[in-house]
Amino acid sequence: MKHDVLDLDGQLNEAERSQQLKVREFTERRIKPNIARWFERAEFPLELVPELGELGVLGMHLQGYGCAGRSAVEYGLSALELEAGDSGIRTFVSVQGSLAMTAIHLWGSEDQKQRFLPSMARGELIGCFALTEPSAGSDPSSMSTVAKRTADGWLLNGAKRWIGLASVAKIAVVWARTEGDPEGDGVRGFLVPTDNPGFTATPIEPKLSMRASVQCDVLFENVELPEEALLPGAKGLRGPFSCLNEARYGIMWGAMGAARDAFETALSYASEREPFERPLSSFQLTQQKLVDMMLELQKGQLLALHTGRLKDTGKLRPEQISVGKLNNVREALKICHTARSILGGNGVTLDYSPLRHANNLESVRTYEGTDEVHTLILGQYLTGHSAFRG
Q: What GO biological process, any one, is recorded here (predicted)?
């Protein structure tokens, strides 16, 4: 690509480049021709789910149990290409793989892994990840959903909000505080079939963002669970946070996919549009916008690639993930807004992608840790002082 000034593609090995191009072809063929319709209708395309399974991107970073076992960089490149289509589609892959499947893979029993992961990898079984609550979105430590120990298992009560896929999922990974846990009370994870009596998922509508995706309010009213519903390895907030870091990693790549598509759209438009009898791209102010977008796009991609290399060598730290999530989503939003300005009035229509991407990125900027949360994570790393409370 002409705008790959730093030749970042040249930093990829053959397997990485092959994976990227495979997912790019899928996005060009299946997502981009349909996304404006899906977005306008607020429709999540369920027919894509088995196709994404066949593509091998569901839980693709996990080893065994029917998962592809690909590298962190290969997963990141896949997230980038999918979000070049739409954040909602990349979010599905993230919720399914980085959150729900990762929770089972890391913290589940061998029976739970064998039972759920292969069908989830194939896209035959959809999962969701229920952590965020209506009154404590950025503060899981204030969780009020409770699982009480009973003679036969557990009784679950509480509520969650902004839970992706909950109304279409068959299995939910639910995080709750325990009461009467023989191993000591605290935050534990549970596998909850969504057809259990007392489980209710209601899509949040209408939305101005992530319209080709599904987010729900979820209510648990005396949901009875057997003992084997418990994820045995997950104790405390380390369980959900380990999954969140996987999702945050994918986000830093995905945001650059949305930014790249917005930039390419603006560059093409500026080259073809001829106000004042000359190409829009020949004007100094337009060139400044294009160059500024290119710089931040290349820096964001380089940051994601470096982070992926760290992850593949087992050296990635949580604060480094916060650097990528905070920077790349923030800069992707700026790129999309600048791209929209080059399109003029045409940029507010669904004929062009930048404003759709910008709307989606407002959600991406909020979930898996707001700017403020990641700023405080990094502030604590730099100073040694936690500023989350008080």
A: fatty-acyl-CoA biosynthetic process
